[in-house]
Amino acid sequence: MSMCPLRLIPKIFLFNEDELAPEVRAQRVLNKGRLPALTRYIVDNPDDYVFSALTASVDGPMQFESISDSGVGMRVGQIRIPMAARFLINDGQHRRAAIEAALKEYPDLGEETIAVVFFHDAGLARCQQMFADLNRHAVRPPRSIGVLYDHRDDLAITARLLAMKSAVFKGHVDMESSTLSQRSRKLFTLSALYFSTQSLLQGLGLKKEPAQEIVQQYWEAVDQVIPEWGMVRRRELTAPEVRKDFIHSHGIALHALGRIGNTLLKESQDPKSWKPKLNRLKTIDWSRTNSDWEGRALIGGRVQKSHQNLALTVNYLRQRMNLRLSPEEQRAEDAYVRGDE
């Protein structure tokens, strides 16, 4: 393992070209769509960004020279590799590409270092096996715990505060899991609150504190028109019963309600204006037995949250609240009515 200056990363580390067939590559194709976010992360946080080590194979001789002949010093020293050797990244090609892009915007990052684990290149089969082994047990953490631990994202902060302090959600949000078990005593997940908050505030341009205030006001107003939430807090119903019989605590419903709120807030951020309009939600039958949800929030009786399902659920709420559909929403609605896939 070596600490390598960032300025050298783009110059010496290579990854296979996209046009090569998968069976003769040692890496997956670079997903360029991931690069802007990674690059922005480095540039926006030059003093405290965190990257895990790169893993690379070296097709050439390597010689290690320790700083001492005995003791701990035997494990610390310099590694010498001819510049004619070929360096191939086995894990971390997106980090490498993001570092290259970040250096163009922020050249001073060049003196920063990143850990690199070097392996001797033993051929294509070995490199492919290394990639498979490195990624075999990689598991993306639940979105909820990512939101819980994120102190940079204002939306994550707002969602956490909502979950911990709001009278509507306090004590009823799973802060770690993004899916709830049948027996869970929680009504909501933190990730569902995050995405609903994101959709609620989309395009409003609010600062953090005003956003937190209006988010709390909105969900408290929604709570007034969905009686089952309050019944769980008063222990008149259990959370598993509500999740089983109704869809309004599921992520798709929260996200859809966030979009509805966004429309109301864009018209007016004065609660005296938008709160009365939420009373129209009282006419909605949120129970799973309501056949109106089939093909929208439900597929075969099971809650689904694809982009299409979310759009059709939002459409249903808009229609019941006498809100206009956008052209895109109208097209999706027309296709649903026709029975198109």
Low-confidence stretches: none
Helix content: 40-55%
Q: How would you spell out the order of helices and strands? A: EHEHEEEEHEHHHEEHHHHHHEEHH
Q: Whole-number radius of gyration?
A: 26 Å
Q: How many structural domains does the protein architecture include?
A: 2
Q: Which of globular, elongated, flat, extended, rod-shaped describes the shape?
A: elongated
Q: What share of residues are in beta strands?
A: 5-15%
Strands of the widest sheet, in order across it, are 1-7-3-6-2
Describe the structure.
The protein is α/β, with parallel strands linked by helices. It has two domains: 2-136, no CATH class; 143-338, no CATH class. The chain has 14 helices and eleven strands. It has helices at 9-12, 35-44, 93-105, 124-136, 143-149, 154-165, 190-201, 208-225, 227-233, 239-245, 251-267, 271-278, 307-320, 327-338, and strands at 2-5, 13-14, 54-59, 63-66, 77-80, 86-91, 113-120, 173-174, 188-189, 298-299, 302-303. The chain has a five-stranded mixed sheet with strand order 1-7-3-6-2. A hairpin with a 2-residue loop joins β10 (298-299) and β11. α6 crosses α7 (190-201). It is elongated and about 80 Å long. The relative contact order is 0.08. The model has no long low-confidence stretch (mean pLDDT 88). It comes from Streptomyces roseochromogenus subsp. oscitans DS 12.976. This is DNA sulfur modification protein DndB. It holds the Pfam family DndB. InterPro entries: DGQHR-contain_dom (IPR017601), DNA_S_mod_DndB (IPR017642).
